[in-house]
Write a sequence for this structure.
């Protein structure tokens, strides 16, 4: 069987074919590294397939694919207690599954955690099954007082670092939200 | 094997390993046995995440050993965590999975699959190479050194009887657990945890 690295090359190629930007994916990685992030736990969403591949292929990052969003939360929360900067990369639906984990672990112990998620359910999202994210994602984040910022253009990419450092400052999770057009390199 | 006897024995063999305990009985027994408030992260709100939480610690503390406890109730909620563990294959991680076939922290409510679940087989099926299973104190004490003290990511299944334990939680709020444990890790590893540079502007 091929390695994760080899598989990620094919996944990245497919992502480019379907309209996602390799340059933006690399900018996301670079901004994370510049912020002090060296471990990334990820779960897939089509929009971030290239970002996942770029993290896998970057030697500055220990990329850990996980198979459940809570595992990303657990891994990154533990990494904080070893002094390792980390990010949990996932789709919007993944974050929606984490209300328990965030409130029970990160809020109880005041452990910072940085999420990168997709902005699913927006008007440019063609997937009917993500309608719920468009309706509820931001309200859910607000309802548990989870600070977030939407990265609306490549000019705003440094907000990734700011959101990461803000989580350390307030000892709570924060979220950077990645819109489709950003990931496609259109804005 | 009795739950409290197994925990007491493991605690008696504890030296300088970092320890993560899971929800309920394991945290309470470990604290009752050791009284430690620095080298243990009592992850009482763990709900299946203690072992991946410990992976996060273990990957960042060099070769310092990390012991983590989980229960079979938690394991069954998120068995995929073991695949992540296997993938990371951290040589300093020892995972004790305490199996009592019930949800021990919630009045011993029976666990789905309690008769048939074969946890060592699941661990081997996920590719973990060092898998040990102990159903008696004799087995645990006879093979402890090989299973726990030798290097290599290891899954250790402890088959114990359910117990009606009604001890108290470790007397610390979450942030105190975080700071005590984190400050200890900072001291022994030199890693910076609580000193992220902050901009005062």
């Amino acid at each position: 069987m091929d390695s994760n690295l080899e598989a990620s090359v094919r996944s990245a190629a497919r992502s480019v074919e379907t309209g996602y930007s390799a340059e933006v994916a690399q900018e996301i990685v670079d901004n994370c590294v510049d912020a002090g992030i060296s471990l990334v736990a990820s779960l897939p969403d089509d929009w971030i397939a290239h970002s996942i591949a770029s993290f896998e292929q970057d030697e500055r990052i220990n990329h850990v694919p996980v198979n459940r969003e809570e595992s990303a939360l657990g891994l990154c929360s533990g990494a904080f207690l070893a002094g390792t900067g980390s990010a949990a990369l996932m789709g919007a639906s993944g974050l929606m599954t984490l209300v328990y984990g965030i409130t029970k672990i990160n809020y109880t112990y005041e452990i910072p955690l940085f999420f990168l998620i997709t902005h699913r359910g927006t008007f440019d999202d063609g997937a009917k099954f993500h309608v719920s994210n468009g309706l509820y994602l931001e309200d859910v984040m607000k309802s548990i007082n989870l600070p977030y910022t939407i990265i609306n253009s490549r000019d705003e990419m440094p907000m990734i670092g700011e959101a990461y450092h803000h989580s350390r400052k307030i000892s709570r999770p924060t979220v950077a939200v990645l819109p489709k057009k950003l990931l496609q390199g259109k804005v | 094997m009795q739950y409290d006897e197994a925990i007491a024995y493991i605690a008696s063999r504890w030296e300088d390993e970092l320890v993560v305990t899971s929800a309920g009985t394991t945290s309470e027994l470990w604290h009752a046995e050791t009284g430690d408030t620095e080298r243990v992260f009592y992850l009482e709100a763990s709900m299946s995440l203690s072992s991946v939480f410990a992976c996060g610690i273990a990957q960042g503390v060099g070769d310092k050993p990390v012991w983590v406890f989980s229960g079979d109730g938690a394991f069954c909620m998120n068995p995929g965590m073991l695949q992540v563990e296997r993938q990371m294959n951290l040589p300093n991680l020892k995972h004790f999975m305490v199996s009592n076939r019930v949800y021990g922290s919630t009045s011993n409510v029976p666990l789905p699959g309690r008769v048939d679940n074969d946890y060592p087989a699941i661990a081997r099926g996920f590719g973990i190479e060092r898998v040990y299973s102990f159903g008696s104190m004799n087995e645990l004490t006879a093979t402890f050194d090989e299973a726990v003290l030798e290097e290599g990511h290891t899954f250790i299944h402890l088959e114990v009887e359910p117990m009606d334990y009604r001890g108290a939680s470790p007397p610390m709020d979450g942030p105190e657990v975080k700071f005590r444990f984190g400050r200890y890790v900072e001291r022994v590893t030199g890693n910076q945890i609580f000193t992220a540079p902050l901009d005062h502007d």
Observations:
- Residues 132 and 147 of chain B are 7 Å apart (CA to CA).
- Chain B has one domain: 3-189.
- Helices of chain B lie at 3-12, 25-34, 50-58, 72-77, 80-88, 119-125, 137-149, 174-189.
- The first helix of chain B runs from residue 3 to 12.
